[in-house]
Amino acid sequence: MKVLSVVGARPQFIKAAPVSRVLRQHHEEMLVHTGQHYDDNMSEVFFRELEIPEPDLNLGVGSGPHGAQTGAMLAGLEKAAMDAKPDWVLVYGDTNSTLAGALVAAKLHIRLAHVEAGLRSFDRRMPEEVNRVVADHVSNLLLCPSEVAVRNLANEGITDGVHLVGDVMYDAFLFNREAARQHSGVVGGLGLAGGFALATVHRAENTDDPLKLQSIIHGLAESGMQVVLPIHPRTRSRLGEEAPPTIKVIDPVGYLDMLALEDAADRIVTDSGGVQKEAYFIGKPCITLRDSTEWTETVEAGWNVLVGADPRRIAEAVSSFQPSGARPGLFGDGHAAEKIVKLLS
Length: 345
Prior knowledge:
Elements: E1 2-7, H1 10-23, E2 28-33, H2 44-49, E3 57-58, H3 66-84, E4 88-92, H4 96-108, E5 111-115, H5 127-138, E6 141-144, H6 147-155, E7 162-164, H7 168-183, H8 186-189, E8 196-200, H9 204-207, H10 210-221, E9 226-230, H11 233-238, E10 247-250, H12 255-264, E11 267-270, H13 273-282, E12 286-288, H14 296-300, E13 304-306, H15 311-320, H16 336-344
Parallel strand pairs: 1-2, 1-4, 2-3, 4-5, 5-6, 6-7, 8-9, 8-11, 9-10, 11-12, 12-13
């Protein structure tokens, strides 16, 4: 069996690591990196730390408008698929790389498997929501991380090929948690003393709107907590001025350092889907800088609260939000990768 796996962004590298590890034991994988995330802090470091095989092909697409970026991916992935003639195309999550891989498979009549199928924020203003809906509706194998995802698909009339496998990010978390504790020196290196909140802000809806970005920074500063903010240089430049003294702005960190920071933080503030889940895995309160989320089960469980970009709500939540219930096992048993490879076989 030959599988063409498509990745392009940080969360996809994390998801692909456990699947590739299992898949390559008995089958052939062609790993294609679209180049959607392309600098060392957002790409190569994850391949090194997660021991992901070097991509067989890197399209080097880079950043750009959605249409141009997705179009370049379509052209590169179509040629790769026609040359490789895989039995399956495997896509992850909800990025433009996901959409391009799904469309290529559908157009070339190659079976398509979608990891993280069935997620819905029910907000079509989010480009990720459009990407995941399209991918689900052209997939042959829909690999769901949670029962909520299975129900979402059923509500759209999708039941064939749907399987509850658990979350591959949970696989990666369990595999790497102890390594992060033993080998990461980021917490000591930053000289963090006492409690702190870990924050990430990367979504275009927050970083491309100067008023929203300043509102988020103001809310973090008014919370009264020390905040550690790993931030992409592009976003750092948009802050326009020095961050308030209670916010320690640092460059992006690798996966193991991120796990170590999450483990040490008192609470996590983010607009990332993946970081919301990691907060849940590690048992930390999560404050989400969005008005909607695809991980609705974490909100329903009482461990995640949506605050948007409202500075007052951000400050209040960072200073006082506490989980309101038990933390049920929502995302499987840590063996999603094995289940996925078995289904592909």
